[in-house]
From TrEMBL:
Pfam families assigned to the protein according to its UniProt record, in alphabetical order: EamA (PF00892)
Assigned protein family: Belongs to the EamA transporter family.
Record's GO cellular component terms: membrane
Keywords (A to Z) from UniProt: Membrane, Transmembrane, Transmembrane helix
Domain EamA per the UniProt entry, residue ranges: 6-133, 146-286
Name listed for the protein in its UniProt record: Membrane protein
TM regions (residue ranges): 6-26, 33-58, 64-85, 92-111, 117-135, 147-166, 172-198, 210-235, 241-263, 270-287
Regions annotated as coiled coil: none
Length: 288
């Protein structure tokens, strides 16, 4: 895989990892739907300004339906994942979310991509490392089992979004427009779900009221997620999708390291070994 697409795919991992860490923290204090809607609304405002400044409207076409589909699937995946992160340790939940890489990898194989031997080895090593990096604990209380179910649901959604957004544009300005359409759809779908949840008696805000002080963090989560979608789309368009998807799926390692640094969650031996395997797999993928 060329160096530049590999760097974009790795940037995707960094951005998604930090966004997941921030989203998980915010969801512990604010309802998950509110986190999704507010963070994505901030992203809509910024992306709208970028589209206007770059003339992205000229790139409108039928391919934007892929962005609409990604926008409908995205809120379901994000909501499921943020709830799972709030239920269980981030270092346990996050690696399972990366299993969604099977969706774009499968699409790439169906479309005829055939990675080399080193890259196949890199895929196996990296995915194994990502799962181990969280020190997965599948046994335990019902809350843990619910977290696992929500995470697997989110994984399928994330994988579908990766496949859809990579088909939504072929140019940089078109990518800005596709991301804008995706986020507008995110906000519309998430807002409708939030309205229904409130009508059924669920709280829309924490007891302390609207989290004004958390706006910068919410903005970071929304914009980091948008940027990650953008860097992944570029990586997938300029390199093998099978390889780009696996490199982009390394984000749980970032989430686990952030949890270690900011929340003092201790890395177990299996987690450290997993991080090492993920690094080895990354090197194989980038050089294969």
């Amino acid at each position: 895989m060329a160096a530049l697409p590999a760097l974009f795919a790795l940037a995707t991992s960094l951005l998604w990892g930090l966004a997941d860490f921030g989203g998980g923290l915010l969801t512990r204090r604010t309802p998950a739907l509110t986190v999704v809607v507010v963070s994505q609304s901030i992203a809509v405002v910024v992306l709208g300004a970028v589209v206007v400044a770059t003339g992205g409207w000229s790139e409108a076409g039928p391919q934007l339906w892929f962005a609409v589909a990604a926008g409908l699937v995205g809120p379901v995946a994000m909501l499921s994942f943020y709830k799972a992160l709030a239920l269980g340790p981030m270092g346990v939940v996050s690696p399972l979310g990366s299993l969604g890489v099977a969706v774009p990898v499968g699409v790439g194989l169906v479309l005829g991509e055939r990675p080399g031997l080193l890259q196949f080895a890199g895929v196996a090593v990296a995915v194994t490392g990502v799962v181990l990096a969280g020190g997965p604990q599948l046994k335990g209380a019902p809350v843990q089992r619910r977290a696992v179910f929500l995470t697997l649901l989110a994984a399928v959604g994330f994988g579908a979004v990766m496949s859809l957004i990579s088909e939504a544009s072929t140019t940089v300005t078109g990518l800005f427009l596709a991301l804008f359409v995706q986020r507008v759809t995110n906000v519309a779908a998430g807002g409708a779900a939030l309205f229904i949840a409130v009508r059924r008696g669920a709280p829309a805000l924490p007891e302390s009221g609207f989290p004004w002080r958390a706006l910068p963090a919410l903005g970071f989560v929304g914009l980091a997620d948008v940027a990650a979608n953008g860097t992944y789309s570029i990586a997938a368009q300029h390199g093998p999708v099978t390889v780009a998807a696996v490199l982009a799926s390394l984000y749980p390692v970032i989430t686990a390291l952030a949890a270690r640094g900011f929340l003092s969650e201790r890395l177990r031996g299996v987690q450290a070994a997993g991080a090492g395997l993920a690094l080895v797999g990354t090197l194989l993928l980038a050089t294969g």
